[in-house]
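Encode chain A's predicted structure.
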Amino acid sequence: MLERIFRLSKNNTNIQTETIGGATTFMTMAYIIFVNPMILKDAGVPFEGAVSATCLAAGIATLLMGLWANYPFALAPGMGLNAMLAYSVVLANNYSWQAAMGIVFVEGAVILVLVLLGAREAVMRAIPDDLRRAIGVGIGVFIAFIGLANAGIVRRSDATLLTHGDVASPDSLLAVFGLLLTLLFLLRRVRGALLLGIILTTLVGMALTNVSALKLDLVRFPEKALSIPSLETIGRVDLHAVLRGGLDSLTLIFAFLMVDFFDTLGTVTGLGEQAGYTSDGKLLPRLNRVLAVDSIGAVTGGLFGASSVTTYIESAAGIGEGARSGLACVIVAFLFFLSAFLSPIVGIVPPAATAPALIVTGFLMMGVVRKINFSRIESAFPAFIILILIPLTYSISRGIGYGFIAYSFATLFTGRFLKVSPLFHLVSLLFLISFVLG
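Encoded structure for chain A:
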């Protein structure tokens, strides 16, 4: 049955590999179960309800991705999108959290219509190969940067923007230990190297925390093992407030649409390159299904009160373990559903334990850079802008936007403006407008 549904042999994978890949992906993105409610709490969303909504919305969207699109691309409420909702919509524009979820719901519905009309796929077809490859590399650097930050190896600085962290701190030492352990597993060709690294690093952190003489707080043990899911945020979306908002609501919907649209475009492009689905400049097979599921995820996130649910770049960790089919997503979805009841236990895994997996995954995604033709400055420089600004702006969509604008100007200067798809230039113009409007 699994062979028939997920075509395991055709995807050169098996049940064991998909299970390990799915568990690895879940471990690297499980932080969202607690981080998302913490952000949404500032917008007035009930914390316990947001925890359950996060697990359920992520589980439903990820399960749909696995069963319908048959790809190992997991989904959950998007970081950045949740902050936009809490701070830009609710706190800055005085919307209720229910109305903010209404904006997310409408934005997801609009993107779903664009997918059904073929507009989202048409945009991806209009992107030059070098820029498409740069998106994948930029996401790899982004993932590694997040891992380095979680490990405490780099940190923010008022003087130099970024600087080195305190590598001698207990959390950093645990992360460095985990990184060396993971590299050892990779060098020895151990199956499930990333997942084993996360588990063993967590166990070491638990053991050291239990040594009272050391007074370390590497792992926070829960007060209880089980939790009863709260459904208080589900169905509380306020569409009437969105309609009453008029132009303000339209502006916010446009902002969410631009970020969500191109975050997903970039993520899917990067994951497809890493998994080998999009070699020789070809688009991802069944792309419309992937984009449709992502759009349905946004609608589900708004309906459940969890913010916009989108495809996660952390899926690259599972792909790095060999996951190539939707069975990995079924595993991730099962673990999200289970987390609705076991969220205290899931919270044991510290960021220092998942940081090594993110760093190594970033390294694995860097290989695509050799396919970029750096002898053609017209496309190579915009590609460079994309791959460097995705991590530096901490935004996939912003990095893509600056690269698109640079490429449009480059074609204008070289007399090739009319030879590029008008849709590409239209997207560049929309990015320019959104950046000017802030």
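The longest strand covers residues 154-157.
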